[in-house]
Amino acid sequence: MAVKGQVPDLPKQWPTCPHCYNSVMPFPRLLIARQKFPDRHIPDIPAAVARELGQSPFATALAPGSRVAIGVGSRGIANIATIARAVVDFWKSKGMQPFIFPAMGSHGAATAQGQADVLAHYGIIQETTGCPIVSSLEVVSLGKTAEGIEAFMDRNAHESDGVMLLGRVKWHTDFAGQIESGLFKMMAIGLGKFAGAQRYHTYAHKLGLAQVVRSIGRQVLASGKILGGLAILEDAYHQTAQVSAVPVGEMEQREEELLRLVKSWMGRIPVDLDVLILDEIGKNISGAGMDTKVVNRSVYGQYNLWPDAPRIERIFIRDLSELSYGNAVGIGMADIVCDRLLEKVDWKPTSINAITASTPQAMRIPAHFPTDRECLERISPTAGKVDLNDVTYGWIRNTLELDRIALSENLLPALRNNPLIEIVGTREMEFDAAGNLHGVPVPAAEPVGTH
Prior knowledge:
Elements: E1 30-35, H1 45-54, E2 67-72, H2 80-93, E3 97-102, H3 112-121, H4 126-129, E4 139-144, E5 150-154, H5 155-158, E6 162-168, H6 183-190, H7 193-207, H8 209-222, E7 226-234, E8 240-247, H9 251-264, E9 273-278, H10 292-295, E10 312-317, E11 336-338, H11 339-343, H12 347-356, E12 367-369, H13 372-379, E13 393-396, E14 404-408, H14 412-415, E15 421-427
Helix pairs in contact: 1-2, 6-8, 7-8
């Protein structure tokens, strides 16, 4: 029994003074590991897009000279500008007049200029795509679903002769279902703009986002304005692995099939971890800032709810991606962050995004300290290991880049029998004079598709 004034027992290797958080905590040597995922990259993306669209029935319902609205979203999709240009070229080859519009809900701070800027950040501007970029938040009502949810469509898209969707099919960060993130979600929240995004997420609070996305998608299809979609699938290296033209009549079934396929390609962290170090989060990386099904967290605050993902006890985020442009939604899923991240947050787009999605938890400010070392020294003892030498660590750049990962040496027994893991080196967990982690977690690797 502790006596008043007596220092209690502390974890091994912790400073003897409970008020001291100096540089005495042990940090393990790191193993630099390569995860050998299958390489599925498309060598010639424009040719693949032209081939897929050329075999599609998309243009058969339109007369030459028709105006075609191409919806493009706000995620960090690999090669998105190249793909968008190839889509524009297809429609021009058919004698049509294409234009691109932002198909995004509250992103870009829920302003027309902000959403055009998001596309510009990805290289989607008139000079590179060869067509106008038309951005507006005005919408047209498409009536109500069976649940009484009013559906909306971007006015410029609705006034065109036909709408084509350009989006990536993948797992969603907030829910699990047969349809998650893809063309249906783009028809709902993307085409619905800010007005739709607000309303749909409100209904989703009770009905679930899976049901709302499917129901709104069907209502949008019933408008007769949709020509079809080009579904983009990426492999575990974040490379464009497949482009599929999806006709309207097959959209629901095909999206379910494509989601099952791309989930089978998903890259994962290979082991359970006590502490995961993330160099950055951002909207360009995931809708939730970091992929919840990689880090096994929920935007609503639950820990380790995805059964197919490794258990991760604590998450430390070091920084905010420059390509997120101040939107730090997802910060609330972390256990601890460095002050440098908070200094980069633009709270206007962050709060608009989190509140519109009915996930205020996603913008909560975690515990934060000035340096990486102090963050790690504060959070590591909370992971449940009495001997701090037993704490396991993983370090990645972000949740998109999982082919290279640094793992603490005490994880070696768990890695030895994994045929997908190759240990390519070791390094110390080094800190610079300011107390921040030195260098990047792993050496920069060439994109697999360049080999």
